[in-house]
Every structure is written in C-alpha cells, then in structure tokens.
Design a protein that fits this description.
Radius of gyration: 19 Å
Strand content: under 5%
Shape: elongated
Order of helices and strands: HHHHHH
Distance between the termini: 58 Å
Bound molecules: iron/sulfur cluster
Helix content: 55-70%
Structural class: mainly alpha
Number of strands: 0
Oligomer: single chain
Length: 101
C-alpha cells in the first residue's frame, strides 16, 4: 500500500492534536470522523467498508473485528455510564437488598 501525505485536517491539528481528536472519535464510535483524521482517509474508509459499508453503520458501537457482542470499547463505554441507580436495580433483580446503604 502506498503511503500518502497527511490530510490538511491532520496537518492543521498537529500530531498531538490529531491523535487526541482521533482518540475522542474512536471512543465516540464516530467512524466518519476517524476516517477524516486518518493519515490516509481513503484507505481507512476502504478497510472499514470491506465489511461494514452501510452508511448507517458509521456510528455503530463496534466494528467487524470483535463484532457487536464482544466490542470491548462498547462495553467500556457502557461501564462509564453505569450509575449507582443502575447498580441498585441490578441488585434488586437478583434479590440483593441494602447493599452499600
Ligand atoms: S469491535 Fe473490537 S476492534 Fe472494533 S471498535 Fe470494538 S473493540 Fe475496537
């Protein structure tokens, strides 16, 4: 695969800024933004689209490598949103009461 020049967006942000922005896009499952920030957007998009070409999957919380059930990024994001109320609801469902009160 031939190496290409960084995109103007990647150049404008600088290496650190682009890397940070790419990490944020990855965490948000914003695939189009990830492609934009890639050093070679066309190749990045082409690889992604080999298995998930549908436009509706450009914000899917997974890719084809691990799939929707085993995406650790997806599970990590859900963990961060898990609240104390969620924990109490789960404990209530399994019959544990008064935990942590
Ligand atoms: S499916 Fe796997 S490789 Fe793809 S985003 Fe999730 S953790 Fe990363």
């Amino acid at each position: 695969m031939p190496l290409t020049r960084p995109t103007s967006l990647a150049t404008a942000l600088g290496a650190r800024g682009r890397d940070d922005e790419l990490s944020r896009a990855r965490f948000a499952f914003d695939w189009n933004r990830q492609f934009e920030l890639s050093l070679d957007p066309e190749t990045a998009r082409a690889y992604h689209d080999e298995t998930l070409p549908e436009e509706g999957l450009k914000d899917a919380a997974f890719c084809s490598m691990c799939g929707p059930k085993f995406c650790s990024m997806n599970h990590s994001a859900k963990t961060q949103k898990f609240t104390e109320a969620d924990a109490k609801a789960v404990l209530g469902q399994i019959g544990v009461t008064g935990a942590g009160a």
